[in-house]
Each structure stands twice: as C-alpha cells, then as structure tokens.
C-alpha cells in the first residue's frame, strides 16, 4: 500500500464512524465561507442545540450538578454537534463516542445513586488534541506511519480529567509534527476556519479551535510550544491558556521531538468561555498531577494568587503594558485597533496602560528557531520515513544542521542568558508603572497575522516569546476584521523578511469577519493571576461594548 | 608559562592572603589524621572560639539580632577560623575578607542606627562553593585556564544572600569540572577530610564540607548534580539539602556542562545544624528568586508544608521506608548499623518504618551516566585545553561518544519514562504504610562508601537517584565508623563491578572515626516537609543517644 492509500483508508474509517442520521443532508458549497451559522436543525434536536449553545462552561456544569441535564444528554448533544462540525471544517481525527456514552452513563448512575457528582468536571465533554493518549484509541498524530498505533494507557492528562468527572469523546486535527501554525497533515488533510473556510483555523491545536468555535466541544485540551494553543484560540475568537512548564501534566501524552526539554511544550485549555480556563486549571491542579507525572510541579490551585495577592489585591488598580510592535514584524492593521480598544476599555475601568518596550525580538526569535531545529529535523524525518510521506510545514528548516549535544547545550545556555535579561527588562518596569510593582501583565497581539489563507506562513514570535521565557499567556477575543475600518497602511521600512511578508499578505477583504484576539501575558508561574486578569480585561471589553 | 606554573602562581597568591598572625606556628604532621581538635588558641581568641563553636545557626543569628554580638566580630571570628582550616585541610579557593569586613560594618551601622536587622540572615557569614559568582572576585572553578577570570556581577544566589543580610567571605574547593565525589583539581590540589586526613572530604562541594566541619563557616552553599551537596555533608557529619530543580536560584553562577538541563544541578545549603537548612531555604524562598532567575519557581516558603500538611500534620505518625541495599551495590557495613539505629530511634518515637523495595537501580544508574557523558566530555576537554592541564576524575568516561541532539533527546525521553515508573513505584507504597499515604520519606545511605581514601572511586547511585527523579533529599549524621562493631562481612555475590569495588575497599581500621550519615528523601517539591522530617529524625536519634 502507498502512503496515500493508507491515509485514505484511515480517513474512510473515520468517516464511517459518523452515523447516517448525523450526516448533513446537504453540505455547504465552497462559496459558503462562514459556516458558524449553517443550519443544523436537520440533524440536531432543539434540546441538543440548547445544550451546545450554552456559552459558559460553569453553567453546563451547574446544570449537571443539579440534575437539570444528565451527562448522557450533554455528551450526546456535544458529540452530535462535533460530528456535524467535522463535516463542515474537517476538524476530527478520532471519534470514540461509544466509550464516551459508557462513561456518561456511569456518571449518571453515580449521580442518581449518591446525589453527588464524581468531581468538579462531572459530565463535561472535553475534546483532546491528537496527541493526548486515551486507552484503546488509535493515535496517529497525523503521521501515516503511525496509523494503527493504539494507546495502551491513558495519558496522565486524560486520566485526571476522567477522575475529575469529564467525558472524553473525540480528538482533533493538527499539523504534521505539530510544528506549524495551521492544521494540515498527510493523514487527515486540512482543517478550515469556521468563520471563513478560505482561512486557516491556525495550529497546532487547530482542530480544537475549529471544533469549539462550532460548539462541538465546550472545552478542549491543546498543547503549546510556540503558540499552538493561543493561535487557534485567537483565530476562532475563543479563550486559551498557555501555563508555565510542568503545571499541567504532559506525561503519557505523545509529542514530536520528545526529549526536547529546553523549551518544553505545555498542555492547556481552549474554551468558549473565560471561565473554562479557570475550571480546567483548577480541576487539573487539584487532581494532584505530581502523583502521576514526575515532572509536574506540586502546585495546588492557589486562590490567593487568583485573588491577585501579588498584584495589589482584588479590586486594585493594575498596570498593563501594550506591545504594539515587537520591533521585527508589524502586526496586521486590525491588531492595532484591537489594542487601542482594549487599552481604552482598561483605562475606562480604572487601570493604567503604558507602552511595553520590546526586548531583542530578533535574538529571541533566532534562539527559538535554533532550538526547534536542533536535531536537523531528524525526529520528523524518521516519522515520515515510516510511510514515505513527504514533510510539510514552514517552521522547521529542511536544511537545518543536526547539532551535537555540546552545541545544543550552548543554545540552552544562550537561552537562559537571554531569558534572564528579558526578566530583568520586565522587573525594571517598576519605575514606570506608578503601582510600586513591575507591569502586572503585557497585552500582546495573539499573532502578526489575522487567520491567514491556507498554506501561508506566520511570524510566530508574538506568541513564542512566552514559550521561550516561560511566561503565562492567555488569549481573549476582542474584535473581527472589518474592511471598513481596518484599511491597509502605507508600506513602512521593513525590519525583516517576515515584516514584508505579513505586510504584503494583508488585504482587508480577504480577512473580513476573521476573529482578532489578544494575549494577556504574565510572569512564569502566574496561571491564577493571569486567568483573573483575563477575566478583568474581558469584563472591561464587554462593559465598553455595552456602552 | 606552563599550566603547572600558572597553578602554582594562583596558589601562592591565595596563600599570601593569609595574614601572618593567622598562620599556625606549627602545622600538624602527616601522622596527625584527625585535625578537628587541633589546638587553635595560638591564633584565635577565646571570643573567636566561643563564636565559632556555636553549633546552631539560629543562635548565631539571634545573638546578632539582639546586639549581643556584632556582624563584624562574628565575621572576623569565622574568617580567622576559615583561614586556619585552610592550613589544615586545604579547603579554600578564594579569600575576600576585605569585602566581607566592609559588608559587616555596613550591617553593624544599619543595626546601630535603626535597631533593626537588614534581613533574616543579618550578619551570618556564608561560604560559597567555587562556582557561585561574587562581583569582583576571581572564579576559576579549579580550571587552570580560568585563572584571572573575575566575576563582573553577583550571581543571583550571592545577591539574594547579601540582600537578606549575609556576609560573603570565602569560596571553597571542588573537583575538576565538579564531576567526581572528591575535591581535587589542578589549580588548588586536594582537600582532605578533617576527621581523617587520609580520607577524602567528598565532593563536589567538598571544600564546604571540610570548612564547615572545622567551624570555619556556619553555613555554606554547594551544588548537587549527583550528590555533590550530600556527599560532603555526609562525609563530615553535617546537614545538607538537595532541593528540587529551580527552587534555589542558579542563574549567574558558573557551572560545568552548562546547558545540560535534563538533570539540572541545584544549589543548596550545608550546615553544622539542621536548623541551618531551614534558615537558608526560607530566606532564599522569601527573597523571591523568581524576580531575578528566569528558571526559578514562584514558591515562597510554605509553612503549611513544613508543618507536614501533606503528611498527616504536625505530631502525626509518619511512615518511613529504609533502603538497605539498592540491588546493585551493597553499602559498607557501618551504613547497615546506621540504618538499624535510625529505624529503632524512629520506631521508639512512634513512627512506622518499613523496607523500601529498590527500583531498577541499574537502569537508573545507566541513564545518569549516559546523560553526564552525552557531550563526550567536550565541555571539559575545552576547558582543559585552555591551559593544557590534564583531565582527572572517575565519573566522566574519557571514551564516551559525543551524542547528536536527537540521541540526547532519546536519553531525556528515556529518563522521563523511567522517573514516571519510579514515581508510580513510590505512590504504590500506599498499600503498605498503614497511614493512608504513600511512604512519607525514604531513609537511604548517603553513599555506598564511608569517606574513602583519596583517589578512590565511589558508587554514586544512592545519592544520584534523587537527582534523576528530582526528589528532595537531606543528609543528617548518625554515627562514625567503629572498627569494634563495623567488621567486614563475608563476601557476597557481587551484582556489579562497583559492588566488588566497594566491598574490597572496606577495611575497618582505614575508616576509624569517619562520619556515617544517612539521607531523608522526599518527593519532588517537598523541601519544607523534608526539612521538618529531618528535624524529626535528628531529634529521635538524639533522644535515643541520651537514653
């Protein structure tokens, strides 16, 4: 069998898992770009729609914990909508709804017999990026050569989610090797952006972004090595969180370039509601991942930190700093508008907003690229060689030199010297904030580009600097591209090839309606505080919109 | 100049820093093995002796914070005794007492004018391993090629110690590249064990061990990559602590094989009193190292954890497990006696003591060795090549292959798989403890050998498994080798070359009077709980001795 035949076989098996009664009678034609409003009432009941239209994860949980909805009907509603979403944007890689329904029934029986929930995530359907192992479910991570690879054990993440009451039911699409900001591979093809199918859903957790935007999941788990949670969250107008290294347990999940620990990839949530971020992180921390993952930090949920104990306390005046341009690559025009709107909203809410002075983006970006490419692509080449499938993507350099261990150590050393300087740069802002503290968080574009047309590259340092420095970074939605106000600007003096590329890629009509999101970036280990600050920013933006 | 001439020049400059009035009129002859009781009254005043004989760091601090002693007189007493210690066992590498006395005077003036201490370490002289940078002080780390290298900035560790009120005054000897368990290099030569100068002080923080044992310092900072804090603490009957990765800030200090982050070396305290461990760790955590070190964890001192919140609470029954033999290499006979005595003391204090089942020591030991040797010794070869000095030591393999980055990543991956299994092994002890918790801590020999004669190798896995798994491990003294009771045993079936080596190295008379110490090993991130449990064990041993 050729690799193409193997991949086609896998896709056919996946398609066969969609029951006949969940197949859309007519699929939207290629001219239908926005499928978020595509009518679903031919396959979903009003009850299914009511459940899955719930915009707040806390409300979903509350309805199940009070017996208003059962886990079975919530699971059923979400898996149906997930299978429909897949027909619209090609977002799924694995479907295991039989396992999910058995699990949901167990939860309902427990609730019926004890009157109690199993845990804080009781009944919540949670979708998973196609690298988080679930016992008995095939895991290909988009590699043709991995077709047939069935996980023997739950990853720690999957197990702890189950322990806390969650229901696992689908996994979602990713780019080859998880190593570029789209979601396209030789097994499952390309996932599209539900708001405009000519555009990418982003990546690498792009299937999650597309699925959650289409309400096929209220909360998903992605991973982030350079923006892989945040880019898809941003490109679909969702909320996402990249916590610090080893806060959410990674053990037992699969990854590309495993053993690369200079910049560890982290798992984290993407959700339709900002509350979803807190619910996930709190449930995960309270599940004591350090009992199962040897690298997980012994850090229970810290309510004092969430109450902004290190930031003047709840209700105090915060000082944010805005990163308008990192000095290397100007973000597309809608980002400047989103930053202005957010700054105004925060000021209206009584906070201070100053400018963030970018710190050596070129040096930081080069360090990231060199570390990503340190094995000269050997890991990915081996995985592709299993089937003969071609390599794809635009982050890894096919001509990168395979470094020796000593050379790799020098990179790690340079990284630590750089991040020390970056931290000093942050701490030194204490003189400019007026709060007696350094900047509480940085407001940063979630990328240089709006969700771009398929097959185009991005400049990733707006998200990736947080991976390099291990800063905690959330994504929150602000606006959408509007050709009426987001006109192209006159060309500026380009500081890099990426600067030119991003400038030339912008053409307002192409991006009409595409979500534009920002990041709230806090210091290493500040998951709780960043979630709270994201809630504060989100509330400020919503208050301003209402006025 | 040859490397020998350069090294001799450096040693001469160091010797010249010892004032004439601090030179011992007669040095003990080579037949004087135990120099801990060598008379010092020819160079130290009764007041100097009274101060430096203070066995408890808390008492020292209390006397300064209440004005009984000044920082100046305490600093002066300790530096004098340090310079004397150096004449007995060759433990120092850098002497910067002028800087120290300026600092001490500042502290005294602050105290005099405000009535307050500068911080929790007010006036405490702290010695540093020869890798912790102090601004303006030469740092060679024992490499001839680094002679003349003066630090431009304080390391974060040194700076935070100063911020907390400490006085820095000397640095101490180490093995070449910090990579074997003695303290010998081509610049400074060999440091001896003050209890028996035919024996090693251990390493790599061996100068610290020897200096503190001779009361030339109440507390020192070492580093630990395989036992380098614990071995010298153990070999001198002191207390030491290896915390988890990134709890004590390493940034700005120098290291060999920098960039090796698979098993990060950690800094930590060695002290004459168990209280010194807490004082150091609390002061360091409360100094917020995360504001200066990009890898430091945001973890203030956790008093609840110190009160054993995760171990049944203060005053509860604990369950310890004893590691008698790791299945690869039998410790020398005095260790079995020390373990028996400690088990009996803990049982007498109402705690439970079960046996620890060793977990795949051969696999773990091989992973450690492979990671240490991953660069094929390139880092060390480059440092030696600067001067032409020869390599030395017995941990790094001169014929090790220099791995590619991909090969190195596979090692890191194997390490994470192994430590996950090791953690499961620990967590599964819950069924055997009777407390409802897994084993609270493991009691482990601090090495396979008692402090061995100079130039002999050790088997290091008794300490190094904690580095591999990132377990927190303290050292506490138990007894001393006593030929009357610690007879050689009949040969057993050797499980490894190390097993034979350690067996054949034992001959009771050689080790007469040598300190024998054990470790208290807790889980990753349990610095506070391990310190408390060490205090509990120490008290139990002292109670038993009194009876």
From TrEMBL, chains A, B:
- Give the catalysed reaction(s), semicolon-separated: a monocarboxylic acid amide + H2O = a monocarboxylate + NH4(+)
Q: What keywords were assigned to this record?
A: Hydrolase
Indicate yes or no for the key word Transcription regulation. Answer: no
Q: Which GO MF term does the entry hold, naming one?
A: amidase activity
Supply the Gene3D superfamilies for this chain: Amidase signature (AS) domain (3.90.1300.10)
Q: Does the keyword Signal apply?
A: no
| Positions of the catalytic residues | 129 (charge relay system), 204 (charge relay system), 228 (acyl-ester intermediate)
Which range is the signal sequence, renumbered to this chain?
Answer: none
> Which class of enzymes does this protein belong to?
hydrolase
Check the record and name the PANTHER family matching this protein: AMIDASE (EUROFUNG), AMIDASE-RELATED-RELATED
UniProt name for this protein: amidase
From what organism does this protein derive?
Mycena rosella
